[in-house]
Amino acid sequence: MGQDPGGRPNLHFSVLGPVRAWRGEQQLPTGSPQQRALLAALLLRGGHTATAPELVDALWGEEPPEAAVAALRTYASRLRKAFGPDADALVSESGGYAIRIPHDGLDAARAERLAGEAEKARGRGDRAAARELIDEALDHWDGEPLAGLPGPYAETQRTRLEEWRLQLIETRLDIDLETGHHAEAISELTALTAAHPLRERLRGLLMLALYRSGRQAEALAVYADTRRLLADELGIDPSAELGELHQGILQADSALAAAPAGGQRGDPAREPSVVRPAQLPATVADFTGRTAFVGELGEQLATAEGRIMAVSAVAGIGGVGKTTLAVHVAHAARDHFPDGQLYVDLQGAGARAAEPEAVLGAFLRALGTPDAAIPDAVDERAALYRSTLDGRRVLVLLDNARDAAQVRPLLPGTEGCAALITSRTRMVDLAGAHLLDLDVMSPEEALQLFTKIVSEERVAGERDAALDVVAACGFLPLAIRIAASRLAARRTWTVSVLAAKLADERRRLDELQAGDLAVRATFELGYAQLEPQQARAFRLLGLADGPDISLAAAAAVLDLDVFDTEELLESLVDTSLLESAAPGRYRYHDLVRLYARACAGVTHAEGHGRDEQPPQGAEGPAEREAALSRLLDFYLATAARVYALERPGDRLIEHVHRAKHAGLEFVDRREALDWLYREAECLLACVSQSTSPPMLERAGDLLLTTKDLAESGANSRRYEEAATAVRDAAAAVGADKVEGRALTILTHVNSMAGKFDEADDAARRAFTLGRLTNDRVPSCEAPNDRGIIALYQSRLEDAEKYLLQALDAFRADANGPGEASALCNLSRVHLATGRTDSAIELAQQGIAIYDRMGLALRLANGRYALGMALGHGGQTSEAISRLSEALLVFRESRQRLWEGMTLFRLAEVHLAARKSAQAASHAELALAVLRDVGGDWRRANVLRVLGEALEGIGQADRARACWQEALNIFERLGSPEAEDVTRLLAPIAAA
């Protein structure tokens, strides 16, 4: 945010999300919620003084504490202390306080300025600039404004700021319609009208967008939906403005399709601007040699016009300069691609290569496609990508590709475009590609590169030593560049000093056998300078498989306290052997990680990729396993704390392995969940890495305590992979208890994904192993899971039998939450067999147990079951209340599967109450939430209900489309629900 006149970083603040304060890039502590509420109240007054009575009323309303004024003084004092040298920004005057900062020091003020500029741009006809400015303003929102702040003032301002955000969104969408982007706006408007069903402006924009897209019937249906909704909820009719729009659509008023006044269609000033991405990384100033390769690739790109997709693939070992060459050639060819250049690092050399669907999403956004118009499926994204590039001349640089399969969906496929690919593997299976193998530099080129970096003056008198250096680097460009940069930064060194440091052949790899480890000699230059404790940390931290590692986890690996660990890690960052990914998080470059493992003595059998003698100072197998064991213990202990906070009283914690590490402690559930989802990738990587017999049981227990990840959507696939790895490892060594628990986990995973046959088979085997090993976990969980699976498959007698069995098992284990879960599930069986009264009673019994134990999340599961039962019993209002309560908890707990299913149940209740508009709104939201979790069977059920809701508001065509998609899914899965959908489609087919 800049500096003050004295060169000191300015204070700046945010209120469009959590209330936070920074000095420059440093975030400052802002204290308790009440203290932050005071800060927000002062910030939102724009520098004007607020008196003590005004502030007391803002923070506490009509019931302030006796010492309210004293508390204000305390909060103000603490804020001044947090501001440090900027304490004078908080001033005391006229019996009150004020905060005086530059206007742009507050995110809301910056957003207000941008919104004002957008209004001016729109007024002068520059709609593209106006839209860009509004987007920039909206980017300042970071979740709920004034998140977590108490007090009436905060609540009022929260409402105001959210209303302002919606107004900006409406303005942006209005501009989209003015500039011909009506088709792209429909998806976003559908979601917004579902989220804000009573907001007529959004309804009007959706009607106009549908009409301009040739969907007149749907536009009219939106009005019917709106009219019914307003009558049901508020007892009023739509506004006159919306009514006039409705009449215009009915009459096919040409004015609705005409260009805005003051411009005609095709007027360049009114047309949406064409986005021309320019994503190429900067080329290096000291690019050297490669003349033949530059000419060959340049010729390929220069002749791309008039050809169907020129594709060139450059292959070579890591560090050979593929990216540098490709970027240099791409910059030289920019004039041949006037419509833009796209770039992506596909991370093919790492453990987590970029997924094509994610890359396609980023490319489509860069080409100007709104998020709402980007489809989910990779094939659909690829098709839209090719369509978007049709008629354009765009160069696509796909860097660091894993293989041809990763690349194929990303190829333009249209005349005039070209793709330039770099990879460590030769893509012989990429049809039509011009293949080029890039070798190491010639000695002359290597010396030229070294000289350019170090300087001619320093190399001139030591040419032989310089040749020794580049030879020791294997003529590999990356190694040469790193070595030369080190020398350039050390003015007291001579070239001979560097050559002597590289003279030991034990520190170099044979270039012909090096493969991906060809830069090892370069990394050794830094590693050799480390102190013993630094070197140990460098070696051990490289053992962990996660994408990065937190400070606390690193402390566990190293068996040190957090302060000593941070000092060590920051010193490694200074040597460039470790990167600081974010405050408190660290990561290795993929090749550096491999080198660190080699230094730790990891052999081919342990995943290093080479059989060799461990280097001096390397850890033995026992030491390496101990380090990873400490990491596993840290994750297990901390995950158990998260589980206990989420599910107090749950007996699972007493059945899992007790870790030696204490784990982290959390203030509340939110902080605990933040940790869980932030650490998900690292934690699951640790599980997959911990399948040796000494750690296998703890790995399985870690999965049990992190089952929330299976239901989150974002981590479901990775969670399943980890569970499968544990199951296979347990089966291989005859660890029946661990295998039974892993099968219990996979039962849950498969059930969440709608793969019920696989889930039932896993549960059956888990139960058998549970009985064999006298393990309470699968013995209780398996029949509970089998009961709900049988319910989903309409095997109601089996469902009741299994759930009664589960109920007995949970009671024998004195597991209150488990007992309540079985009762709630049994409630659903009674409901499905027409026993509504007993269904309600069973759900209430389950809720009573959850309530008594203070289980917020599990209580939501109980309310979900009760809401279903009440809905079937005709108690609509009570059903909606219970389901809405459950929905809030599921959202707060980030349980996307249950959030989506609760929205679906709300849609069912509204549909049964003949409130089709509300049903459609909730069903649309359910589809959006369940997009990445829950499986096709659940999606088909939502589509069935959405179709019925759409039919209820007169949208028969959309209803039929929904039912047809649902029928296709049910028939593919062999589900009995196909018959119900066929009956729904029958009257339409007959008509």
Specify the biggest β-sheet. 5 strands, parallel
What is the residue-mean pLDDT, rounded to a whole number? 84
Helix content: 55-70%
* Rg for CA atoms: 32 Å
- Please tally the helical runs, counting DSSP H or I stretches of 4 or more residues: 46
Spans with pLDDT under 50 lasting ≥5 residues?
258-273, 505-518, 604-613
Overall description:
- It contains 46 helices and 14 strands.
- By secondary structure, the protein is mostly helical.
- The chain has a 5-stranded parallel beta sheet with strand order 8-9-10-7-11, sandwiched between helices. A 3-stranded antiparallel beta sheet has the order 1-2-3, with no helix packed on it. Strands 4-6-5 form a 3-stranded antiparallel beta sheet.
- Mean pLDDT is 84; it is low at 258-273, 505-518 and 604-613.
Question: Characteristics of this structure?
Answer:
mainly alpha; 3-stranded antiparallel beta sheet
Element layout with pairings:
Blueprint: E1 11-14, E2 20-23, E3 26-28, H1 33-43, E4 50-51, H2 52-60, H3 68-83, E5 90-93, E6 96-99, H4 107-123, H5 127-138, H6 152-178, H7 182-195, H8 200-212, H9 216-233, H10 240-250, H11 254-257, H12 291-302, E7 310-315, H13 322-332, E8 341-345, H14 356-366, H15 378-389, E9 395-401, H16 404-407, E10 418-423, E11 434-437, H17 443-454, H18 456-460, H19 463-472, H20 477-488, H21 495-501, H22 511-514, H23 520-527, H24 532-541, E12 549-550, H25 551-558, H26 562-574, E13 579-582, E14 585-587, H27 590-599, H28 621-646, H29 652-655, H30 669-678, H31 680-689, H32 693-705, H33 716-733, H34 736-752, H35 756-773, H36 776-792, H37 796-812, H38 816-832, H39 836-853, H40 856-872, H41 876-892, H42 896-912, H43 916-929, H44 935-952, H45 956-973, H46 977-990
Parallel strand pairs: 7-10, 7-11, 8-9, 9-10
Antiparallel strand pairs: 1-2, 2-3, 4-6, 5-6, 12-14, 13-14
Helix pairs in contact: 1-3, 4-5, 5-6, 6-7, 6-8, 7-8, 7-43, 8-9, 8-10, 9-10, 12-13, 14-15, 17-19, 17-20, 19-21, 20-23, 24-26, 24-27, 25-26, 25-28, 28-30, 28-32, 31-32, 31-33, 32-33, 32-34, 33-34, 34-35, 34-36, 35-36, 36-37, 36-38, 37-38, 38-39, 38-40, 39-40, 40-41, 40-42, 41-42, 42-43, ...
